[in-house]
Amino acid sequence: MPLGNHIGRTGRERSLGRRLVLGLSAAALAAGLATAGPAQAGLVDIPSAAPGAPAAADLSAPADGLLVRFDDSAPAGAIERAVASAGGTIEVSHNGGGFARISTGSKSAAAVGAALAASPVVDLVEPNRIRYAGADPNDPRYANQTSYLQTMHLPEAWNSVTGNDAMVLAIIDSGVQLNPPHPDLVGRLVPGYDFVNRDSSPDDDFGHGTMVAGIAAASTNNGVGVAGAAWRGKLMPVKVLDSRGAANDDNIAAGIHYAVDHGADVINLSLGGPGASAVLQDAVDYATVNDVVVIAAAGNDGDTEPHFPAACKGVVAVGAIDNAGNLASFSSRGPWIRVVAPGVSIMTTTRGSGYGLGTGTSFSSPLVAAVAFLLRAADPNATQASIVARLEDSADDLGPGGFDSLFGHGLVNARAALDLTTFSSASSGSGYWMVSTDGRVYSFGGAAYLGSARRALAAGTTAVDLEPTPSNGGYWIVDSAGNVYSYGNAAYLGGLAPGTLGTGEQVTSFSAAPGGAGYWLFTTTGRVFPFGNAGNFGDLRALRLNRPVLDSIPTPNGQGYYMVAADGGIFAFGNARFAGSMGGKPLNAPVQSLVPDPDGSGYWLVASDGGVFAFDAPFRGSTGHLTLNAPVTGMVPFGNAYLMVATDGGVFNFSNLPFAGSLGGSAPAYPIVAVAAKVV
User: How far apart are CA 240 and CA 302, in angstroms?
Assistant: First the structure.
């Protein structure tokens, strides 16, 4: 039976998709072979065996039976007959994600799976793989307790936030010591569940979960034992690892569903093993769709084979560094690794009310989960995607410059991550973004932080503009050479090739077409480069300009655009209506930005001294009469008027929408160059 996710397809389409490849995959399954090669590192979608039909799983792998998803339209009787005919027994009708657990008894999983694959009522089959706790590596490096808290800048972060007692960090592991509770976990626990023994007492009979829980959030500043990375907050023990430290995918997925359904804000998974799993991916998707951050240990095999659930899409996979800051010899590696954290000789709570040292990525992961928890505590309205972006963007780069397959984005830096969280105050309201010349993004109000170009900028370039998508679910950043960086739901449609720009020419502005399926890049000389479905309505390449073009805006329907030069000259193309300009008139300061009137009838210009010029648009105010600490660099439409930003991050709001914050008083290291607004 080929594997795959058929979401959004009808029952008839699913059946047709299966039958296209049954001849190949059923035979391969009967032989105990997979039709596709091993999963590629960093890719969690199983490679396709045929268009519209995913590849088969290796059902000969060690597993606790099979996991089967049936056609939604199949009658219960038909399902029972199909399972019985294949030689299997339904043990659990569904245990998270709509999968049934099938026992194969004395028959081989490959034979039963092949028979099920041939059934028209079966949508997907895969082994119920066994996963293991991240045990000590084979060649461990035991050393004295390291200063891992300082390495991750956690003490500095604690000056701002220590947690939130109303939030929950789920530890999906072997449970925690409950009878009696570990003295350093007393008062921290909320009810959990034991999926091994099927009861509500997730007591730890392996010891691993108690160690992981203590690293993440042992009681702190209580004069007893160790300090947790998060001082405050609740821990939810979800037991999926048995007394041998083993868990099957079925229970792991059920544990994720349980944690999400019972209020977890962050989930930690210090367990895993090789072999991609649709069951685990579906469970992770369930978590992320419900805005839960999922952190997982990368594995201790020291090779590049992806471990799951760490390599599932949406999971922050955590590798380990040693006491010298090098990648730990045991830490798994590959492009699916997102970040690293200390993982050698981590002091923590142990079963039996004691304390000890843990080594492995299992003990790196809860440190990162705790930082994610602190970020949520500092910014309760932040989205899951925003928390993940902050963890990755603020990490201290290690190894080769930029993202790499050893350290991912780098070593998690709690202090720097928090520096990216202090400006957001609401998840659904209006807000705004700023971008500085080094590509760093600052978000305010309801504008979600989705990533920055700080490490991505091409050498010798600076960020020049930021533009949100029409849905506000993403944004683009463009640099001075015309390279485009996309975040969230912003589609990358291309950028300028090297050598496109003339001597001294730079890209200065980015404008998105309605719908987000196209955009334009504008240069200082007035040249225009359209991408996607953005039309070309002309440019200024044939003219000699008095001053460079600095900004642009499209018309509401995308059938035209305006450009403005530093001398206030306005240039209208397509269906853009010229309403006046400052060209040829004396200015106290150069014009920086062009902003459309929300009703589409006119526009405003703003100069670097904050002076505003209105053309067929109501004048709402300016700072032209004030002495500014830094020049105005941009202005955007906001509510019924406009909002300005200065190079030091100071914000001047002349609209009917609330002020959402600024960088005034704490100027960024690099000047702000552009501002963009989210208006709801």
Answer: 24
Residue 526's region, left for phi above 0, alpha for psi from -120 to 50, else beta, is: left
Crossing angle of helices 109-117 and 76-86, rounded to 10°: 140
Residues 589 and 510 in one domain: yes
182 and 286 fall within a common domain: yes
Tell me the sheet residues that pair with 652: 644
512-547 per-position pLDDT tens digit:
999 899 999 999 999 999 999 999 999 999 999 999
Tell me, yes or no, whether 413 lies in a domain: no
Residue 403 covered by a domain: no
Residue 559, domain member (yes or no) = yes
List active site positions.
173, 208, 362
Classify 317 as helix, strand or coil: strand
Neighbouring-strand partners of residue 604: 595, 614
pTM above 0.85, yes or no: no
In terms of C-beta density within 10 A (0-12 exposed, 13-18 middle, 19 or more buried), how is residue 60 classed? Answer: middle
User: Average pLDDT over the chain, rounded to whole?
Assistant: 85
Please state at what angle helix 109-117 crosses helix 22-30, rounded to 10 degrees.
160
Task: Report yes or no: 126 and 3 within 8 Å, Cβ to Cβ.
Answer: yes
Number of domains comprising the chain: 3
Q: Indicate the DSSP class of residue 632.
A: E
What are 156-183's pLDDT values in tens digits?
888 888 899 989 999 999 999 999 999 9
Domain of residue 597 covers: 423-678
Q: Are 325 and 399 in contact (CB under 8 A)?
A: no
For 600, the token pair is 């589409």
